[in-house]
Design a protein that fits this description.
mainly alpha, 9 helices, globular, Aromatic amino acid lyase, lyase activity
């Protein structure tokens, strides 16, 4: 069992990606994430301060205020707008590695997301319910990671026992309800080069095995 706390080894990544090692969120990481989330909740509940991606638009729309009742919708729309990766799906091992790396990055506890989001990612790994992620995305991996978020929200597609199914059906198979992304959570999920990091970790693991064979 690997406890996510914001640190991972190459061996950890390979164990989860290739050997289906179990994953859970560590207690200390859970506390950090809860504290970080409380800060975002406080900002989202206030109309006194504009915070990028929390109560404003993104990119060129950064100066557009978002009303409190639309903050969750803003996050869901971010996932839909970045659902633009193309090409054949990433293979099973890379998908698992990318989910792990992203969950671990969020477990550092400075991204402002609640621990339940990482719990959901861990459940996808435990149940081997894997979002279908096209391999040709964006340099920052936002397009690839948007596919992960959409499945958590009951959209997109995922592989369940090797069979491609809708996001809703995949969540049913994993025993999960649709995840309601709160302020900043989708932005945090897609903001990281987790796919590239996962590819690098798996490549290093293979090189080490070859070097010691």
């Amino acid at each position: 069992m690997i406890e996510l706390d914001g640190s991972l080894t190459v061996a950890d990544v390979r164990a989860v990606a290739c050997d289906d090692e179990s994953v859970t969120l560590g207690a200390s990481a859970r506390e950090r994430m809860a504290s970080s989330r409380a800060v975002v909740d406080s900002l989202a509940a206030s109309d006194e301060e504009s915070v990028y991606g929390v109560n404003t638009g993104f990119g060129n729309l950064k100066d557009i205020p978002i009303e409190r009742e639309n903050l969750s919708r803003l996050q869901h729309n971010l996932l839909r707008s970045h659902h633009a990766a193309t090409g054949p799906p990433m293979d099973r091992e890379l998908t698992r590695a990318a989910l792990l790396v992203r969950a671990n990055a969020l477990a550092v506890g400075v991204s402002g997301v609640g621990p339940e989001l990482v719990d959901r990612l861990c459940t996808l790994l435990e149940e081997d319910v894997l979002p279908v992620v096209p391999a040709q995305g964006s340099a920052d991996n936002a397009c690839e990671l948007a596919n992960v978020g959409l499945v958590l929200a009951g959209e997109g597609d995922a592989l369940v026992d090797g069979e491609r199914r809708s996001g809703d059906a995949a969540l049913d198979a994993a025993g999960l309800d649709r995840y309601e992304f709160e302020a900043k959570e989708a932005l945090a999920l897609v903001s990281g080069t987790s796919v590239v990091t996962a590819q690098t970790a798996l490549a290093i693991a293979d090189l080490r095995r070859l070097a010691t064979a």
